[in-house]
Amino acid sequence: MNRFGVALCASLMLAGAAQAEQVGEVGVDWVGNDIEIEALHDPEVDGVTCHIAYFDRSVIDRLSNGNWFEDPSNSSIACRQTGPIVIRDIDLGKGGEEVFKQGRSLLFKQLVINRIYDHPNKTLIYLAHTREITQGSAKMSMSTVPLYGQDVVWENGAPD
Fold this sequence. Notes:
This protein is mostly beta strands.
């Protein structure tokens, strides 16, 4: 992980957001650009792991393109049940809640993952997208974890 990535991880720890751990890194070209792969455990849902992939620009790429402070908005997410599911206090509203965020530029762009509960279909939805102050990005990725037929423990009682 480059120094920029280390600084982002440090700011994540201070913000109290869910932590992701790097589980893979694939080099994509000769200038040192990489695809980072991280595992994220939902802080309010035990037994669900999301794997996030995103592009990490190298110093050489930053120098040659002149855009020092920003990584691309592209990302991909896949979430699966990886153990017994225990759901604590989650937001059941249509907007769901943010479970992870990571800076993709010095100040104004963040990779965000929201969890939404689809009650009629008994499914957890995880949406990865980029939040920007002036322009939103249409680049997004989504993954679902069906709860139907699973032995799910709702600590605060299952929703009606």
